[in-house]
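lol ok so funny story. i was supposed to be doing the assay writeup but got distracted and ended up predicting the structure for this chain instead. priorities right. anyway since i did it might as well share w the group, maybe its usefull for someone
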Amino acid sequence: MKYGHAENNTLIGNRVGVSIGHRDTDNLVTGNDILQSRQVGVFFRPENGKDFAGHRNRIGNSSGSVTSASAVLSLLSIDVNPGLTIIGPVGTRYRIDYALEANAASWTTMVTLTLPSSPYTFSDFTTPVRTKRFYRVVAQP
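and the output, tada:
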């Protein structure tokens, strides 16, 4: 879908809450309740080349929003400790960064890891409870 708008929907108990990729471009997904997803809440499908990928999709809620890049990432929980689900080729190195604002000019590296399985869940036990953080996952060469 291109230039789509999904706002104020409730998605409960789906395998995947929202799936983006394969030419899904310039969409706005905001104010939606994505609950009890069996695999991931927001899934950025793997790219098959720059002309067959999702670009500039904006995902947001009352805490803010971010525009998609090439990372596959979903937020599991922010009640106690946030968790990220990374879906990608096993053995690929990824860097997980965080910032206090979605559009921050600089990000802090939290960890660099080699993906042991896919999907892989990473939990951030370093963040103070109820602190707002934004995360990104960057594939490493």
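The domain at 71-141 is CATH 2.60.40 (Immunoglobulin-like). DSSP finds no helices and 14 strands in the chain.
back to the writeup now i swear
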